[in-house]
Amino acid sequence: MFARGSAKLCVKYFPTINICRKYRQVFREEQNPSSLRKRPKDVRAPQPAPSERRNGKSKFLRPMQTAHFIGVLSLMLLVFAAVIVIEKQLPTALKTADEPNNPDRFIAERAYDILKKLTTIGPRIAGSYANEVTAVELLKTQVQEIIDAAHPNHVIELDVQRASGDFNLEFLDGMTNVYRDVQNVVVKVGSKINSPHSLLINCHFDSVVDSPGESAYLFV
């Protein structure tokens, strides 16, 4: 009651003050309830502004329809099945016992034996003794054996390069990789008939720390 009486006094003697004006509006609404603002019956959800529309479509994404989801899932299953089928089409790995009947085929067992010898060296970090000396000598020995057993019509050349340089890596905030006297074992296979065409195949024989480096791309 005291607060209401104080409000009436405020409206009577201080009508220009903001708080008194609010009290006066409250008293008027109490005397005339029909003047109260009512919520309109037809209330619709807010529509996106024209600036929020692009090419006549709302920027809000709609959930994927069932038909679209089934189509995407079917495509994924089809690709997965195609990969399995293609993998099954890989040629059968031949052994050294199959060499007499397949003189022009790749002998996987021979390459696997070289790989085992290379991995027994252990981790071969670039610049280490294991990589720059032991691994290089092993590769040179294996290539020289191939040269000695090659047909006279084949010309096989062996060379060891030593390169130094640097290059920039766009990784994280960037870094510069500097190398000195890194060795490349280069083998050129050709014939006595000169040809203007050639094919370059390269790989790396080093490895990361604490890894024997027996990945498939070692002899790619």
From TrEMBL:
Q: Where in the cell is it found?
A: Endoplasmic reticulum
Region described as Disordered: 30-58
Mind listing the UniProt keywords for this protein, alphabetically? Answer: Endoplasmic reticulum, Membrane, Transmembrane, Transmembrane helix
- The answer on whether this UniProt entry bears the keyword Transmembrane reads yes
BP terms from Gene Ontology: proteolysis
- Is Ribonucleoprotein there in the keyword field? no
The name this protein carries in UniProt is Peptidase M28 domain-containing protein
